[in-house]
Amino acid sequence: MATNTPILNQAANFLANLEYEKLPVDVTESAKRAILDYIGVSIPGSQQPVAQNLFAWAEKRNWGKTATVIGRKIKMAPENAALINAASGHALDFDDTSWSTIGHPTTVIFPAILSLAEEYNCTGKQTLLAYIAGLEVAHKIADLMMPEASENGWHTTGIFYTLGTAAAACQLLQLAKEQSALCMALALSKSSGIRSNFGTQAKPYHAGMSAKAGLEAVSLTLSGINSSPTALEDEDGFIQCYASSELAKIVKNMAKPVLFGSPWDITHRGYAFKKYPNCSGNHPACDAILEWLNKNPTPIEDIASIHCGVSLLGPKELVCDQPKTPTEARFSIQFSLACALTYGKITLSEFTDEIILSPHIQELMSRITMGVDQDLARLGFIGTAPVKIWITKVSGEEIYLENNLAHGNPEKPFSDNEFNAKFLSCCHELITREQAELLLKDIYQLDKVKDIKKITNQLCF
Amino acid sequence: MATNTPILNQAANFLANLEYEKLPVDVTESAKRAILDYIGVSIPGSQQPVAQNLFAWAEKRNWGKTATVIGRKIKMAPENAALINAASGHALDFDDTSWSTIGHPTTVIFPAILSLAEEYNCTGKQTLLAYIAGLEVAHKIADLMMPEASENGWHTTGIFYTLGTAAAACQLLQLAKEQSALCMALALSKSSGIRSNFGTQAKPYHAGMSAKAGLEAVSLTLSGINSSPTALEDEDGFIQCYASSELAKIVKNMAKPVLFGSPWDITHRGYAFKKYPNCSGNHPACDAILEWLNKNPTPIEDIASIHCGVSLLGPKELVCDQPKTPTEARFSIQFSLACALTYGKITLSEFTDEIILSPHIQELMSRITMGVDQDLARLGFIGTAPVKIWITKVSGEEIYLENNLAHGNPEKPFSDNEFNAKFLSCCHELITREQAELLLKDIYQLDKVKDIKKITNQLCF
């Protein structure tokens, strides 16, 4: 392919030539686990206020009945179901993270494709292939623009996965190459989301907005609204607006084509999965303390104080010293460690007003401090959140723990048992253990599912 | 008001305190003329492919019947009617331009407010006030970010009028101040549109997308989706993402509040209206040649050649030397002048395939040249498109014309007769002269209209 082929045309060629049977097994297996993780977290997420609010909004604006809304018995139009299901998956901030975007891929692309797949009676294999296609397009294009796009202030989930959703939908619907390129170009004009709206329902809404916008870019293009296939790298295009004009020029003059699928981002860079339902900045500390407690069972009354040394990102992310609500508790290393010390686990069950406000937990949190560690500060704003922990016992004994990387990162991947345990714990209060295990089994065999409704039917409850 | 009040809270205070009776008369009269101009151009625009395509798209996605779609007999949900009517107003690139945004205000804000006003049985006065409110908020905030936002590559119509529409809707619905600020903050996360998609249906679609997004920001907020009222000037906020972090810091540290309504942008800086249905870069040349022809009727066969000296923006905007289609002809100074010489006018009637492809026009265009003039180049990328024209007659006689500013700009405003003539000429093929004159009269008396349906009923045809 000539390197002067516009990148969206290159992406459209990639989409047109994809075949499930030619995908590496590690790619399809990794994708299934990301889908498993998404479906797991979207189940409790579907009961969160943001999902309830979007459901109420969409009920008034509904125009179809073909797509399942997770955790509801009412079907909706695909674009509305995608909106709600995407926000549900991000509502607890418990979903996967791509290191290519520092954003959340599966909670946008998968629910959008699931809705379309249900409408078009697709197989599990078709659904899985489209999801993998959209991921890959979004991430190879994000690679050209990161970290600038994130540094500029964008919510990368909002800006890259509108494109990823459009690409996935083009693949699922098997559009002609020219039309796929135009769908993706229109998606570029529909990408938004600013990070200053974080800490509110707008954050998970951005995931839903992006899923809906990606599907709308496709339906609008199919209705005849055209656009420019060079809108990615051209002057005044997506790269210039969201990253910089310097980057846009470099990309426009690249001597080699974009290598979609070689290697595959999902296995090459991989995704981080969350073991705990709180800000990922807590995770290395949570791993370290739970591992230590496991080996050294210690009564709380033996602990005088705990100090956590964190990197520069610590005080930016973990902003709640004495949280009073579940939302605040997710951004509190004090709550995370108090919870670990008290319950020996950090799961959805502990994020309740009752537990957070209990005098015992509030008192315990006051003995836990956090501060930037000078050594870790030298690493800059490192997203992996390395931590050093000093535990001082009442006896005067001091214990030192450290952890550079949380379990669930690509370098320390979840085992299948861990994926399963997270999934079952997410489902726990909403469906029976038997239902959850059946769903789990079907997702692991997604490529064997002849009709995607076999999956979606299990999500209406 | 303390200057540390977030700007969206300042805007919300402004909206809450507005009263029609306290508006200066020149503001309300100017707003009526902008609305007249919008309704005029949206009437033929409603028959353009982009409006037809969006209508077909929205028909499948419709969920209400309260809002008029201009030029159609079917009513739709307000958000869908706003989408189509906004794109209709911009479809011919014949609508007003704000010098505060270099974008198109009325075609986004007015149709959105018209749809809501119809749903809520509002008066003409309420509709007019809400439109004025939204304009003012969008333009005072754009003032903080221009020209950077435009230079970065954004379609300013898409990014500033999502906010303007949300502000106008908050005023119309008389929301509490806190809720208005949140609606506007969510609108900031829904703003998009890149200029590299220009020259396609995406451009008028951006106007529609923006109108719909502004209304959705309001309905989503009313459904409980919250956001951050400091999302405009805060770190990673709207100003940082769409302009620059330097500007965001300056705005955050401003020593004085934003002066909404003092003075009013619509009368202080004013809007440019288009006399001809083509790119505004043609307009000074069109004015000059028509004025000269009027005073010096000249047979075409007497003209050997015409050369237009333009500023640096000329070759960027007027890219079609020998157009073959109406869309191309709108970006051709050759067609504009050939049309003027042949027909003595440049109206919608001349933008037909038949006229553009006629051997006579094609031959005449080949005698007309355009080039950057060294003196005009020194003015930079000046949006007013100054021109120098050299007409060489077959006799050898040379005539020199120049024009620095088109008629319809704030400094050379349309007379009421010109507003009326443009309106009637826009309506000409679609409604009767009698109907057009009644509509015109009612728009001039918009503040006296007791039910906005008196206007909208005239737009269903």
UniProtKB/TrEMBL annotation, chains A, B:
Record-annotated MmgE/PrpD C-terminal domain positions: 276-440
Against InterPro entries, the record matches this protein to:
MmgE/PrpD_sf, MmgE/PrpD_sf_1, MmgE/PrpD_sf_2, MmgE_PrpD, MmgE_PrpD_C, MmgE_PrpD_N
Superkingdom of the source? Bacteria
Cited Gene3D superfamilies: 2-methylcitrate dehydratase PrpD
UniProt-recorded Gene Ontology molecular function terms: lyase activity
Q: Where is the MmgE/PrpD N-terminal domain?
A: 10-245
Q: So what family is this one in? A: Belongs to the PrpD family.
**Know the name of this protein?**
2-methylcitrate dehydratase PrpD
